[in-house]
Design brief:
By secondary structure, this protein is mostly helical. It has 6 helices and 3 strands.
Amino acid sequence: MNVYDDYRPRPVAVAPEPVKQDLIDNEILESVPKTMKAKVQLLLKKMKSSPDISWNEKGELKYKGETVQGSNVVDLVNDVLRKRKYFNPQGWETFGEALREANVPQDLIGHEDRWRYITQTKRTPRSRKRQQSPSPIRPYSPKTPRNRRKEVQNWVDF
């Protein structure tokens, strides 16, 4: 035992490198508006609790062990949060199926079209018959103002 051992430099524990998945989580959180951060955190928590949903180091969606080539989990998460014109990210259908299987609540899905896709169930021809409504659904038509007849004034010649 050496008396001076207490004064010798000791190796310092180095924190492990941040995991790529944490970097992607941060990228997702930074890509959404502040008002949606809480929703995104809950959505990420729900996604991580599902064994079927994950992503690789490039950020591509992995569903049931299969990588969806060309997908980007940042784009997919942003897509289900809010509707953007002319934007259908690669793999959104697979992502919707994954969210359906994970039983994600409607409150976390802000894109109405995606929510409709998520909630539709795979029906057999037999179950479709039972679920048909007796009255046909009429398409929505906005109310238009009625044309009012304007009184016509006659010009007086001078």
